[in-house]
């Protein structure tokens, strides 16, 4: 195969790759647009539930949880797809840095096939569930995750474990550890009301229902925020990759043109030599 033919095939291959990457970039951009409004609504919902819980506990101190013993079930949210830079490595490194001298105090639920591939051999990983690739899949992931969390925390071995979620937070652009159970990391009430809120359930029933809503909303927000951060990482990754492809394509085109120019010169020289020979005859 001639050098020019090889260059032509490489250029065609790079053009195809650039087309695929451009399509992936467009899909990631579309997902960020879809996720934007939903994520803002979820953040406001969680803030409202946290404010209600904080106000409730300020009047019902008997339900304020005692300090935990360090045992936690941690939900580690990674990605289902690749091409998102160090997205999964950041979660993995933070999860390992949080461990104490006794690794038996924590257990992990891993969300996302890519993160699971990196942590599957760790004894703390008790379960893995598929992650969401698009926003429409988040509800199914949340349902499966909620069922598995309930199943694990109601077993004899994990009774009394706390619950937290570790994920790429889009709002802060870093890895966020959010402790959900017991209810400890709540905002201080903006102001102390003169009377407790009037509720139509017993305090214990009210708190139980509030915790269920809080867990569902907070895990949903974490999944949305992680998917948003993942798509932002993918956009940046695709931008860099497309830039490198464009630079390589430009370089190969110059080489291809130079090779073509040499062939043209050789053809002209052959024609001139042929003309001289004919003229001499």
Textual characterization of the structure:
By secondary structure, this protein is of the alpha/beta class. The chain has a single domain (27-188, 197-234), classed as Pyruvate Kinase, Chain: A, domain 1, CATH 3.40.1380.10. It is built from 5 helices and 5 strands. It has helices spanning 3-59, 87-97, 113-119, 138-153, 203-280, and strands spanning 72-77, 106-111, 125-129, 162-169, 174-181. The chain has a 5-stranded mixed β-sheet with strand order 3-2-1-4-5, with helices on both faces. The model has no long low-confidence stretch (mean pLDDT 87).
Highlighted features:
single chain, 281 residues, alpha/beta, Pyruvate Kinase, Chain: A, domain 1, five-stranded mixed sheet, 5 helices, 12% strand
CATH level 1 name: Alpha Beta
Tell me the CATH topology: Pyruvate Kinase, Chain: A, domain 1
Radius of gyration: 29 Å
Strand content: 5-15%
- The succession of helices and strands, N to C, reads HEHEHEHEEH
Q: Strands of the largest sheet, in order across it?
A: 3-2-1-4-5
Low-confidence stretches: none
Largest sheet geometry: 5 strands, mixed
Distance between the termini: 36 Å
Structural class: alpha/beta
* Average pLDDT for all residues: 87
How many structural domains can be distinguished in the coordinates?
1
Number of helices: 5
CATH architecture: 3-Layer(aba) Sandwich
Query: How many runs of DSSP E, i.e. beta strands?
Result: 5
